[in-house]
Task: inverse folding
């Protein structure tokens, strides 16, 4: 459904009324295996999506479906615990609705995390990848329809969806932690079926390093409204056709669980680093 600007404002006003003057600076979308970080937020104010005017409630099993505001690794954050996916039946506009609301509330940065299939045969399941760019060629844009100029221009530049400065920050944090960090392009496939081996070969030919069913719509909307973006992928499994075995959700969940410690340390380390004054130690 197409939302007028007033809907975003009304959602933001409702949330602001619950935050007692708290202003979030960094919005976080937590993917598979990282949802627990939402429970680590200090001084948390949690608001279920279902209570917020014009929000679509999250229906995915195991997804909490709420916004959590508070402090995480020293940063004033807004955590989306439970993201919406297009494959659940939501429009792209609804999938990315919360990003604009969080922008209105004061967030200037979006951190996105996800689990995805590894397209590269020289990488391994379990590797972490810094997202440097994305490909979303075969599905409509969340920015389709009437443009809301309050958020951004009709034809936004997409040269640097993932903010170079934040990529550099992530490299620094990973190096300090001794954490190997791959870098690559997230190839969006809308699912819910996993890709065919032919689709994975196509993704590889087109320049994709990971294939996944989330993230790309929210990132387009965030960049449109002037937010800086940092993105990480857990390569939870080798993409279809690389190994002679079927893909399963259990494999993804197990990999997410196994990577939890490394993945959360990386994200928390980046949040902490973002809080340091520029040029400071
Ligand atoms: N393909 C798409 N989405 C995914 C995958 C995959 O192989 N693994 C986890 N999410």
Result:
């Amino acid at each position: 459904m197409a939302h007028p600007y007033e809907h975003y404002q009304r959602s933001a006003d409702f949330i602001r009324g619950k935050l007692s003057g708290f202003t979030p600076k960094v919005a976080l979308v937590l993917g598979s295996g990282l949802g627990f970080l939402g429970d680590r937020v200090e001084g948390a104010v949690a608001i279920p999506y279902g209570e917020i005017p014009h929000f679509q409630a999250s229906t995915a099993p195991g997804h909490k479906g709420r916004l959590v505001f508070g402090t995480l690794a020293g940063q004033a954050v807004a955590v989306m615990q439970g993201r919406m996916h297009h494959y659940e039946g939501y429009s792209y506009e609804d999938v990315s609705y919360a990003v604009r609301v969080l922008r209105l509330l004061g967030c200037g940065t979006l951190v996105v995390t996800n689990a995805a299939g590894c397209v590269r045969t020289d990488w391994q399941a379990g590797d972490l990848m810094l997202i440097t760019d994305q490909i979303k060629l075969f599905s409509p844009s969340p920015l389709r329809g009437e443009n809301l100029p309050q958020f951004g221009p009709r034809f936004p530049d997409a040269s640097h969806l993932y903010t170079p400065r934040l990529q550099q920050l992530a490299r620094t944090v990973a190096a300090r932690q001794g954490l190997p960090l791959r870098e690559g392009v997230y190839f969006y496939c809308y699912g819910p079926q996993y890709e065919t081996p032919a689709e994975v070969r196509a993704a590889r030919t087109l320049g994709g390093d990971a294939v996944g069913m989330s993230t790309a719509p929210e990132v387009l909307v965030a960049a449109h409204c002037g937010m800086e973006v940092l993105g990480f992928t857990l390569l939870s499994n080798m993409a279809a056709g690389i190994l002679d075995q079927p893909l399963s959700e259990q494999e993804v969940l197990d990999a997410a669980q196994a990577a939890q410690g490394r993945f959360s340390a990386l994200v928390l380390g980046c949040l902490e680093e973002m809080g340091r004054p520029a040029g400071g130690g």
About this structure: The mean pLDDT is 94. The chain has seven helices and nine strands.
